[in-house]
Here is the input.
Amino acid sequence: MRYPDSHKAQTRRRIVAMAALRFRAEGLAGVGIANLMADLGLTHGGFYAHFAGKDELVAAACGEALRQMAQQWRQRLESAADGTRLAALAEDYLSPTHRDFPDSGCAAAALAGEIARQNPAVRRDFASGLEPLMAILDDARRLDGGGMAPEASLALMVGALLLARAVPDSELSRRFLDQARAALAAQRG
Here is the structure.
């Protein structure tokens, strides 16, 4: 049976979408190719019709997750009031909901520690996925009339979320989120 030409691209998108979700929820090492493919009703061998190996899938899944985050941020930026754009992005990102549901959240906060141990090509692809986020933060800074460099804003946001997820003390977790949000909100021009 022959599939239409679009079938392969559609299947690849399904694999990438599921991997993006599962990597953020379970970590890179926690997701096996055979298990991922079985969850999609596909064969382990079929994986290699779409990817050369797991590294290629990691890069594609992280890219997809970071594209989703950039799209959410762009919408949030466009709907925020003058002078509150960075605060609006921080409020959304540094929320208890984002902290509690990493599978649908930012790949940077969920996977940066593991990405640091990947090969240089995966790390370069991951860094490329961060560029649109920093561009949006830079737009927010420019439109708000001032603030810290986008790299510093992103580092503060990702670091605060990562620490908020890591600590078992709910009060300390909340303070990490609250203090980072307050620091970013204070960055208006």
Summary: Residues 54-79 form the longest helix (26 residues).
